[in-house]
Design goal:
Pfam families: DCC1-like. The protein contains 4 helices and 4 strands. The chain is of the alpha+beta class and 129 residues long. The chain has a 4-stranded mixed β-sheet with strand order 2-1-3-4, with helices on one face.
C-alpha cells in the first residue's frame, strides 16, 4: 500500500521536503507528483481538490489530507524521531493550520522558486508518478 504526495514542483522548500521524505521513507510508502504535472492535475480532479488550495496534499487510502493534516500524515510514516511529530495532532487544527499557512504563504520569499519541476534521479524515479 502506498500514499501519494502532491507537492508544488516549483518551490525550493517543497523540493527539499520531498528529498527529506524520501531519505526517511526507505520502504517507499510515499509516491510523489507535482501539483503542476498532468498526473497532479488528474488526481486533483479525481479527488475534487480545489485548484486554489495552497498546500501539500496527501492521498492515502482515498482520503485526502491537506495543510497541517497532510504534514502530520507524512510524519506518521517516516522513520526515526520524525514519526513522533504525529503527536502534534493533539494541537487544535485551527492553530496548526495558521502556522502552516504562514509558511505556505512565504515559501517562495524565504526559499525561492524554480522555473521547472525537479527531475528525479534514476534511483528514485519509480517513486514519481
Amino acid at each position: 500500500m502506498t500514499a501519494i504526495i502532491l507537492f508544488d514542483g516549483e518551490c525550493n522548500f517543497c523540493d527539499a521536503s520531498v528529498q527529506f521524505i524520501i531519505k526517511r521513507d526507505p520502504h517507499g510508502y510515499f509516491r510523489f507528483a507535482a501539483l503542476q504535472s498532468d498526473v497532479g492535475e488528474d488526481l486533483k480532479k479525481k479527488h475534487l481538490i480545489a485548484d486554489k488550495l495552497d498546500s501539500v496534499i496527501v492521498i492515502d487510502n482515498n482520503t485526502v489530507y491537506d495543510s497541517s493534516d497532510a504534514a502530520l500524515a507524512i510524519c506518521r510514516h517516516l522513520n526515526g524521531i520524525w514519526k513522533g511529530f504525529y503527536l502534534l495532532k493533539v494541537i487544535p487544527k485551527s492553530f496548526r493550520n495558521s502556522v502552516y499557512k504562514i509558511i505556505a504563504k512565504n515559501r517562495y520569499k524565504w526559499f525561492g522558486k524554480k522555473d521547472n519541476c525537479m527531475i528525479p534521479t534514476p534511483d528514485i524515479r519509480d517513486r514519481f508518478l
